[in-house]
Amino acid sequence: MTDSLSEQMQEKLAPILGRVPSGVFILVAGDGQGKRTGMLASFVQQASFDPPQVTVAVNRSRYLNDWLSEGSPVTLSQVRKKDPSLFRHFGKGFEPDADPFDGIAWTAATNGLPQLTDAMATLEGTVESRMEAGDHIVYLVTITGATAHQDPAEFDPYVHVRKNGFSY
What is the pTM of this model? Predict the structure, then answer.
């Protein structure tokens, strides 16, 4: 866990912090050289109405951090509650040279990156800035487009609630 908290405080905080709900998305980005990847992202939160912006936290250990900088295009496909197949597929992670979209239904978003058609919807955006936050890097993404892959009135998002606020 963390060295800055006492063991007693960690035990109290872990189950409470773990109950903070977060949406489940597939974050897709490219390296600028033609490679692209996707990863399960559960630390995604709306941050602004005008302009529409979200924050996305990525663990420092992910190579995807090397691909994300100011101006980088991304897509965020929102996972459906009753279809955890995207969760399972992207939750395992991929090496930089692997094709994470093999066998996955997708179409190109306006920014050229995959939007996953088995998701509820896909947000397109551009990284505005980044900030270091402990063991994660938080990216501020301005939303530039959106595609509903099903009727928005029927959206039932996959919401992640952890048992322990110190691990996935």
Answer: 0.91
